[in-house]
Amino acid sequence: MKKFAKILALAVCAASAISLSACSGCGGTVTYTTTTSPNWQIRGSAADELDSSSVLLTNKEVATYSISFNGGSNSSYSLEYYDGGTYTTTFYATSYDWGSENIPAEYRQEGQSDYVYVYETQLTLSGAFVMGENRHEFTNTINTVSYFRSAANNLVPVYSRQDIKCTSPNSLQPGTLEVAYVEMDRAYETYYNRDGSAASVTLTARDDEESGTAAASTATEYTLIDSSAMGIALRSMTQSGTHAFDVFVPVNGASARYQAMWGSSAEISREDVNYAQIVSAMDDAAESGYILTGLTDGVRKYSWTPVTVSLVSDMTGPSTTYYCASVTNTDMNASRAALMRIEEVVPFNLGTIIYNLSSLTLEAIS
Length: 366
What we know:
The chain is mainly beta. Helix content is about 5%, strand content about 45%. The protein has 2 helices and 21 strands. It has helices spanning about 230-235, 275-290, and strands at about 25, 30, 60-70, 80, 85-95, 115-130, 135-150, 155-170, 180-190, 200-205, 210-215, 225, 240-250, 255-260, 265, 295, 300, 305-310, 320-325, 340-345, 350-365. It has a 17-stranded mixed sheet that branches. The protein has a two-stranded antiparallel ribbon with strand order 1-2. The chain has a two-stranded antiparallel sheet with strand order 16-17. The two termini are about 40 Å apart.
């Protein structure tokens, strides 16, 4: 099979993960795992949060986001995104049967099952690349699903799928509009073995790429995340310092090294019109009982902590900043580390896509 093409797909929360090589010391192997906690729970310090009584086996968290775009400073061509784009995440749990015939034979374990989390994302976003009087319009639709083990098991991935129809920027200073962008129309399905040290990726191409299956080693002494699980994995981290971890990127058929750098917690201003929708969504979630933020002088106050995710490389490329509700007490984690805002820098100085939380609900699984 041809080597998987490497493309800058503009999918939110599809950033890769981070891993650094292990080193030896005192005669043993040193590991560099990132501590992960189930901060999406009110009691985020639970030792092993996934069992037969888990609320997420019968209910799902659904978050929706509005999308806006701030254009960039590229003088050769520009990128526009139209109003009406949608981004939705769904989070729940299920039982994963390791004896399933769908799993590659070398990864199967008869009679073995795990409760696992499921994180789904759906993105639809239309726009155009513009050079002079020439325009190329497009609609991106990116649907992903990732299955991974509990926070107590360091969110080890077990399965993922990405269905991608995407037009992405391709050059800083293209000579013509036709080389300013690249198009992808493919699906990637990845199965991992139970300890996450190996993966099998199947590409179904609907464009000029060659379909097929390839094996990859994902063994690392760092925490491993599937790229489709980035948005939820960040919620599990301690909100301070810089975390290194590996993310397996099925589109590339390999892991990439990233870091997540946490900033300082700040209260969200109710007077700032840029955040009004976020505050309203959190208010609604509090009134429904999904989050437990109470009234102070007649109003609810919310704080978030930003985390900037970037590639660990001499050429880091664009970064993405996520804003998660601040975790001040894992034993009474009132706001569940909810993901409230994302600022995604588009490559080649073309601008920034902004995702603002518009609703956060807990719904019964039908």
